[in-house]
Amino acid sequence: MAPEEPVVSAVEGRLGELGITLPEVAAPVAAYVPAVVTGSYVYTSGQLPFIEGKLTATGKVGATDGVDAQTASALAATCAVNALAAIKSQIGDLDRITRIVKVVGFVASDPSFTGQPGVINGASELLGTALGDAGVHARSAVGVAVLPLDSPVEVEVIAEFS
Fold first, then answer.
1. In-domain check, residue 1
2. Is 156 helix (H, G, I), strand (E, B) or coil?
3. How many C-beta neighbours within 10 Å does residue 52 have?
4. Residue range(s) defining the domain that contains residue 148
5. What is the per-residue pLDDT for 12?
6. How many degrees, rounded to 5, is the angle at CA 119 between CA 118 and CA 121?
7. What pLDDT score was predicted for residue 4?
8. Which residue in 46, 155, 35, 141 sits closest to 97, CA to CA?
9. N or C end of the chain: smaller count of CB under 10 Å?
10. DSSP letters of 91-150?
11. Which stretches of the chain drop beneath a pLDDT of 50?
């Protein structure tokens, strides 16, 4: 008897159509866990744009020697993918998500940069594409002086599930 193929959720199927595979959950860089379930909600810790355990860009968004807004937006989408991996690690199947309730995005910004909402659109648009109507959410996009490991962006997600 052949082993059963792992079931791929509809959400992961849509990500696959975009060429995205959920990564392993990123190991915490300090004293916390990647996600916590309480009731019917999953709260993720802030997710950095790790790809295969590494940051592919560092620095301030909008700075002359930093990261441009378009790159930062793509990094925010990577943060959202990492958040989905953290959520899956807690609930087992992303199709159980009934709503992304809130996204909070942090952008390490040059003092003159004011495009934080556009940067965090990368995360919001990825979640909308992956989850459809369940991906529509409330959001904050905040400019900050610095983020862990000199990351340009960090995203946290609150998801409701059944």
1. no
2. strand
3. 7
4. 10-161
5. 95
6. 65
7. 57
8. 35
9. N
10. HS-GGGEEEEEEEEEEEEB-TT---HHHHHHHHHHHHHHHHGGGG--EEEEEEES--GGG
11. none
Residue 4 lies in a domain: no
- Beta strand 153-161 with 97-108: parallel, antiparallel or unpaired? antiparallel
Matching residue, tokens 């441009």: 68
Residue 5 lies in a domain: no
Name the pairing type of β-strands 138-144 and 97-108: parallel
Cα–Cα distance measured from residue 109 to residue 77, given in angstroms and rounded to the nearest whole number: 17
* Residues constituting the chain: 162
Q: Residue 95: which CATH number?
A: 3.30.1330.40
Structural domain total, the chain: 1
What strand order describes the sheet that includes 35-38?
A: 35-38, 41-44, 153-161, 97-108, 138-144
Q: Residue 156 in contact with residue 76, Cβ under 8 Å? A: no
The pTM (predicted TM-score) of the whole model is: 0.94
Per-residue pLDDT, 2? 55
To 5 degrees, how large is the angle CA 43–CA 59–CA 154? Answer: 5
User: Are β-strands 153-161 and 41-44 bridged in parallel, bridged antiparallel, or unpaired?
Assistant: antiparallel
Secondary structure letter of residue 61 according to DSSP: B
